[in-house]
């Protein structure tokens, strides 16, 4: 996935109210499309890379934060709105062979009046999580307690337990990780639910990404260590 246009690089000043990110040397504000805590990312962030939509875009904020550049120079994709599209690209590229040929993939598919899943293709229901937290070379999810994530995971488990097709995808937009595990210390209920989901037949795929200032590409499967 290539970014539309060249990103701008700002020295990172801070984040406010989760949705606003500030540059150090200018008065501009970028929208942060990530409601997570960004634990382990923000406290190590030296610069942010932002997309300029143009002064006449009609948006409340002209800029959107796409990447955090860590102090060691590595990049982390923080725009959670990218995750579904990256998951679709991975499925179409055959990086999750357990599901076979996906065919037409619907995004934001309705399950019932109060629930949507990120993906629906054939008999499969899928949920996608953007994963930025890492401890050493281990990618982890979640970075804060997640009732919504727990709900979806429990529902995927129910689908699989009844013989249905259920898929949980973790998109990991950073190069410095080698495996994936649930963040039990942050949300033990989610970790327990993930293990129960696997035991019930839910397919779990963690996908590592190549991240540059030009784009993000899923390029490898990460072992899931439970």
How does this structure look, described?
By secondary structure, the chain is an alpha+beta fold. It has two domains: about 10-75, OB fold (Dihydrolipoamide Acetyltransferase, E2P) (Beta Barrel), CATH 2.40.50.580; about 80-220, Trna Endonuclease, Chain: A, domain 1 (3-Layer(aba) Sandwich), CATH 3.40.1350.60. It has three helices and 15 strands. It has helices spanning about 85-90, 145-160, 190-200, and strands spanning about 10-15, 20-25, 30, 45-50, 65-70, 75, 105-110, 115-120, 125-130, 135, 140, 165-170, 180, 205-210, 215-220. The strands form three sheets. Strands 7-8-9-12-14-15 form a six-stranded mixed sheet. A hairpin with a 3-residue loop joins β1 (about 10-15) and β2 (about 20-25). The two termini are about 30 Å apart. The model has no long low-confidence stretch (mean pLDDT about 95).
β content, as a range? 35-45%
Q: Based on CA inertia axes, which overall geometry fits?
A: globular
Mean pLDDT across residues: 95
Given the structure, what is the number of helices? 3
Taking the alpha carbons of the first and last residues, their distance comes to 30 Å
Amount of helix: 10-25%
Structural domain count: 2
What is the CATH fold-level name of the largest domain? Trna Endonuclease, Chain: A, domain 1
Would you count the extended β strands for me?
Answer: 15
Biggest sheet, spatial arrangement of strands? 7-8-9-12-14-15
Q: For the report, how would you describe the main beta sheet?
A: 6 strands, mixed
Radius of gyration: 18 Å
N-to-C SSE series? EEEEEEHEEEEEHEEHEE
CATH class of the largest domain: Alpha Beta
Tell me the structural class. Answer: alpha+beta
Low-confidence stretches: none
Shape-level CATH architecture of the largest domain: 3-Layer(aba) Sandwich
